[in-house]
Amino acid sequence: MGVKKCYAHVGLGIRSTMFTDAMVGDFKKYCDIVALCDTNRGRMDLCNRRIKEKGGQPVKLYKAEQFKQMIAEQKPDVVIVTTGPDVTHCHYICLAMELGCDVVTEKPMTVDEASCKKIIETQKKTGRNIQVTFNYRYSPPRSQVKEMLMDDVIGDILSVNFTWMLDTIHGADYFRRWHRRLENSGSLLVHKATHHFDLVNWWLDDYPKDVFCRASLRYYTPANADRMGLQGRGERCMDCPVKDKCKFYLDITEGDFKERYLDCETEDGYIRDKCVFSDEINIWDNMAVNVRYKGGTLLNYMLHAYSPYEGYRIAFNGTKGRLEHFCCENSYLSGDGKTPGELTKDNVTITLIPEFSKAREIEVHLGQGGHGGGDPILLADIFDQNAPVDPLNRKAGQRDGAYSILTGVAAYKSIATGKVVKVSDLLGNVQL
Ligand SMILES: NC(=O)c1ccc[n+]([C@@H]2O[C@H](COP(=O)([O-])OP(=O)(O)OC[C@H]3O[C@@H](n4cnc5c(N)ncnc54)[C@H](O)[C@@H]3O)[C@@H](O)[C@H]2O)c1
User: Fold this and answer.
1) Is residue 147 located within the same domain as residue 127?
2) Kind of pairing between the strands at 310-318 and 208-216
């Protein structure tokens, strides 16, 4: 049994609820939530209500500009950063460390190389701890792949082929709100692919050296909406003249969408149901990335955001054989009340094809809960002070946070220049 830690929590959107529930629920013997912070008063009130409903005590609320005051008054040990847009993470990560706190931050750690360097330098200067919550690592089948690779089942890995499909429900949602602008999210190459590049970095136990990328935006476009017969669209779903025939219509007039977003709109103008075919969008929906790792492994990665199903396929080609892994996740939308990214037995496979042998289906480890069963195990790793040492080394710090975004940053720079981008050039003289 350890001493309880005090947590302040900044950024109280839909993702924050997982942390709130854990701190007042399963891990309450380790946690005291001492303060909440957001730009939006309505979402802070909602979070306090949730704390009360789950049996906790409502806490003091601070607007974003009162963050320093919050730290001075409440003296938290740890600040949890779940703000969105992702571009806001760096400010809170660095300020929290400067003010003497450790940090637990949602992915992506940040969205560009300048803020990444700032985080690395501030961490070195202050000596504080950063944990980046890469829940995908903790999902049992993904942990199982790591175990197999650590057991050297296919020898040295020479190349990796990885395709991730986001569907027209979850994938489309990134084109509705802040994610759809490169300057907010670093595009899906950072916002989403940070998970995927982190997985590859961790699976290979290696780091990216250089990156080339081509990308396009060809599905979430006004022209494609016209092809679907959606002429005369509105700026948002709620009052869109063609909502009755649009497959992407999102109703935010009920439930959590209403409370968390629609009812809070007047304060900050955050519109949750913007048209996915808007010409405001400046991110890509097709991305083809080629990465060379320090150890020489080649990675070919594709991300599509308009697939008929959600999931991924990956194949590792090694000196002693090939390992293939396929996952199809449930379909969900952030905030729709479903468990995000749930896996079912029939939809996950791991196949081992040893050198000169036949393919063997491996019995897959599955778990309950969000993001392939990763969320509950991640939460224990964050909050349970008596958690055993993890042989898979799943706890991710600033170095992992940095390398996982730098592939995406290098990729969007490569799109702009048409050239291969070296990760070391992004870091300059900062050592990871
Ligand atoms: N690991 C995962 O699987 C996973 C899943 C979903 C979201 N996320 C991450 O969690 C974060 C939040 O995502 P979300 O879907 O909850 O977003 P959201 O838009 O629903 O919520 C973001 C919150 O941050 C607040 N905010 C915005 N700017 C702020 C600022 N400058 N200071 C303080 N508060 C500010 C907003 O008012 C809002 O309450 C993102 O970084 C996202 O990448 C991770």
Assistant:
1) no
2) unpaired
